[in-house]
Design a protein that fits this description.
100 residues, alpha+beta, Translation Initiation Factor IF3, four-stranded mixed β-sheet, 1 helix, 4 strands, elongated
């Protein structure tokens, strides 16, 4: 599966546009985390990277469900949800079939 933020893939021809796909992942913020700002910052970085990877896995599953072998025009959005107790990551793109 090829992922790209661009609308085309150099060296490949898009044969079919299959539809918009998304992957979303959410996690409750750990309000019990203690430590200095540096430790909290590192914990946030790790949590956001884990959420991003989960969202990409879901995106891949959804794209494969449409018969895609690539996703173009990917946009990643990181958002606090509710009163900031949850963090969400959504990944959206266009599922396509490229000729290999």
């Amino acid at each position: 599966m090829i992922f790209t933020t661009t609308n085309s893939i150099e060296g490949f021809k898009i044969a079919d546009y299959l539809g918009i796909v998304t992957g979303v992942s959410m996690k409750m913020r750990d309000v019990t985390a203690f430590g200095g700002k540096e430790k909290q910052s590192k914990q946030m970085e790790i949590a956001l990277n884990e959420l991003k990877e989960e969202a990409f896995k879901e995106l891949k599953i959804n794209a494969q469900g449409l018969g895609a072998n690539a996703v173009v025009g990917i946009h990643i959005d990181f958002e606090p949800v509710g009163n900031g107790f949850y963090f969400g990551v959504s990944v959206t793109g266009t599922a396509v079939k490229v000729l290999v």
